[in-house]
Write the structure tokens for this entry.
Amino acid sequence: MTSVRYGRTLSAVAVAAALCSRSAPGQSVSRGSVETIAIRAHEGTTLSFDLSPDGRSIVFDLLGALWELPSAGGVARPLTNAVRDTAEDLDPSYSPDGGRIVFRAERRGRTGLWLLEPGGAPLQLTQLPNPDGYEGNAAWSPDGKTIAYARLVPPDSVVLRWRSRLARIDLATREVYELPVAESVGPNLRDPAFEPGGARLVVVAGVAPAPAGGRIWMVESGSGRATPLAPATTGALAPAFSPDGRRLAFFAPDSGGRTQLWVLSLDSPGATAVRLTNQTDVTATRVRWTPDGRRLVYSADGRLWRIAATGGPPAEIPFTVRLAFERPKRSLPAARFPEPGTAQSVRAFMGLAISPDAHNVAMLALGKLWVMPVGGMPRAIADVPLSAHHLAWSADGATLAWSAGPWQEQDLFATEIASGSTRRITALPGREEYPSYSSDGRHLAFLYQPSEDTTILRVVDPQVRELSDAAQGSSLAAENGADVSWTPDADGLLVVSGGFDPNDSTRGTIIRLSGERRTLARMPDSPLFLRWTANAIVFVRHARLWMAPFDSTGMRGPAEPLGA
């Protein structure tokens, strides 16, 4: 991600806020009045770039857009429009003929690799199947027909951790297939780069897009046979062949742990790499050789640089980026402090649930249980404790269940919407939370914690009162922190656990009321508010709503974002 520096770095979050054209709460917009926001930048935090094959132009990313400038430096011209397209365009790479650019981006919620051709709009090549995934570090084959790239593969029933693999896309057919690499290289691969001619390529044994590098390997394009080119402790990133294929430039830490630019001769087996740079903040995004093989272009200290392939002082490639756009002019209202003792409107809730027919929303807020028609006004139907939370509708829409009580002593309660009367469902020692009614109305499931380190999934009659017998109903073992939802046919529960630790993948288990358990082969990573409909699951991830085809075996295809 790139951002601007004005002495200190202007974060991408601040840029995104400046680009927003909607009014924030508490701000007024003068109708018909606009202001122009102008940004001028000479630096970026993490510049990803590429040098055109003829050496005349540089493309780079900044402020969420792609820019092009003469290789000697100057004023950059925009190639994409991040403001208009609601986009973040990153990591551009020229095709061998210099006429096309591949880059990774999120554009209007669509994330993956994109292709930019002269005079055309960006064309999406791939779509991330998982919102936590990654596809990038793209490298063109010398003939310009295919693109190799690194992609993160989510955990599955065989491999329980994320891993970084290499894929290749055929631009004519859009077919994507895994690049063959010998197993001896290891489970994680990144940073592919083709040698001139395309018979071989180098890869790094490491996880993309992590900042740590790995060992460089030479791989035969067809067979995948691999030979190491550097020691296992090199920690290399972003290797690049010289135009004649006899040298290899790459980034790696120096003795002080600072990333620097190195060059390795491939003519002499066992040769030692030579360090070219000695800068404080070298950015290991990409290094490029000039067409004559005499110089290298790279990014460091927020700027672009050129250095001789034999070493020496680097020379800066200066650039200027100018971005201007209009937005409604905002003015902050005068601060107003209420008089002591006067009632004030507030907004907050401890529970939220939509009715089965999607016509009403229930809320727990300010010590009351509220029901609000969609688009209407809320009405309080019952008083509840301030600790009330975890709200759920019954299948017929007549009852709302919720949990309340002191810490580790919460019980379940049910309120009839028509009368506002409330009854106590459970009175077990310990904690009962997360009520969930089955779609046929015959069962109420909840999570029961008799102690802090024990979780039991209980299923009872929804009409039960003052349940104090731990043996009443069905009891099924569950993991702490599990999320539970009913299967569409109401004969079992989908239990989702794990996924909130990098080393703990998301697990899905269907537990039938008969006690039968089935471990699912594929689950989305760390889904929030997951619900299973007839043929799909819907969940929230990264502040977006996603849908994925789903059945009793797990996900049957990639998740797709819903909405813009």
The chain has two domains: 4-326, 351-562. Confidence is low (pLDDT under 50) at residues 1-31. Residues 12-19 form the longest helix (8 residues). The domain at 4-326 is CATH 2.120.10.30 (Neuraminidase).
